[in-house]
Amino acid sequence: MSFKIGQSAFDFCEESVFPPVRLSGDGSLNFQQLPMTDACVSYAPNFLSVDEANIAFEELAATLEWRQDNIVLFGKKVKIPRLQAWYGDSNASYMYSGLLMQAMPWTESLDRLKSRCEKQCNKQFNSVLANLYRNGADSMGMHADDEPELGTKPTIASLTLGAARNFIFKHKLNKQKYSLVLEHGSLLVMQGNTQQYWQHGMNKTKRVNNPRINLTFRYVYQ
Ligand SMILES: O=C(O)CCC(=O)C(=O)O
Ligand SMILES: [Fe+2]
């Protein structure tokens, strides 16, 4: 049996997009599987080089059609605490808190990043939800991406550009918590049972003043 990092703490997920040994040395992809039970989460801090990540951030910040949507929460209309944009294949629509989001056509840079993620995950994606957290006052409430149109055991590839922010997981049943800082140019991949057993989200913070863009590539069934 090959060596696996942190083997005793949890079972490694078979579908992990990163092989179960850490490669080290110059130029290789540094990655880890998170020590969470009932989940399959892989993280690569340097998925994109700093230069690639800088370019992608500037392009996406300037060219995506960012909007601040309202959602209805306990019967009241409230603005979501971040900007969003939904891109994808022409048939990929998405219900989000009672809001039907029609996908805008892929831009060149989104399409390029999608291909990178597809190669890494060995999966196809037909849409991406882009989130722009303007500063530490913007956030994402705890949720699971468990909508029926994502299918069972969805693979979600989450690319971070810009400010590093703390990302929190909370187990739905035993309330266990796990958190990590998502770095500029990093890729977090959630697979397997992750959405069934865990919620994830991002709190507000006074310590961050810079913007962060997050792209979550998904496959949406019609
Ligand atoms: O911004 C993030 O890192 C998370 C985004 C997310 O959870 C989502 O779009 O569903
Ligand atoms: Fe999510």
Description:
The protein is of the alpha+beta class and 222 residues long. The chain has a single domain (7-218), classed as Sandwich (Jelly Rolls). The chain contains three helices and 15 strands. It has a seven-stranded antiparallel β-sheet. Strands 9-14-11-12 form a four-stranded antiparallel β-sheet. A two-stranded antiparallel sheet has the order 3-4. The N and C termini lie far apart (41 Å). The structure holds 2-oxoglutaric acid (AKG) and fe (ii) ion. Fe (ii) ion binds at residues 143, 145, 200. Residues 143, 145, 200 line the site of fe (ii) ion (FE2). InterPro entries: AlkB-like (IPR027450), AlkB-like_sf (IPR037151), ALKBH3 (IPR032854), Oxoglu/Fe-dep_dioxygenase_dom (IPR005123). GO terms for molecular function: catalytic activity, acting on DNA; demethylase activity; dioxygenase activity; hydrolase activity; metal ion binding; oxidoreductase activity, acting on paired donors, with incorporation or reduction of molecular oxygen. Residues 124-221 form the Fe2OG dioxygenase domain. This is Alkylated DNA repair protein.
